[in-house]
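Supplementary Methods. Inverse-folding protocol.

Structures were first reduced to a discrete structure-token string of length 95. This string, shown here, constituted the complete conditioning input.
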């Protein structure tokens, strides 16, 4: 999650990601599959899920999830984040 937050806070990367999300919202009559193909549409779903779960996330990620994925985040990404959180908590409790 720290890496996602750092990406969003980067002056170029974060702003370009937000800009790309705005472009996606402006497209009409297209699906993520039409735009990106199978593999990259899954990557988009995973990325949107990740960035939507960062602290103080820009609502644009939820909007793109809603438009292209019926507002359903990627369960696999959420599971990975939960496992990472448990591992971090376990290590922190060992100190």
């Amino acid at each position: 999650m720290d890496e996602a937050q750092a990406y969003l806070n980067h002056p170029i990367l974060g702003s370009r990601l937000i800009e790309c999300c705005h472009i996606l919202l402006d497209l009409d009559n297209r699906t993520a599959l039409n735009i990106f193909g199978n593999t990259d549409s899954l990557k988009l779903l995973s990325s949107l899920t990740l960035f939507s779960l960062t602290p103080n996330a820009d609502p644009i990620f939820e909007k793109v999830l809603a438009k292209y994925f019926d507002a359903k985040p990627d369960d696999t990404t959420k599971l990975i984040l939960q496992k990472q959180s448990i591992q971090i908590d376990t290590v922190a409790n060992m100190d």
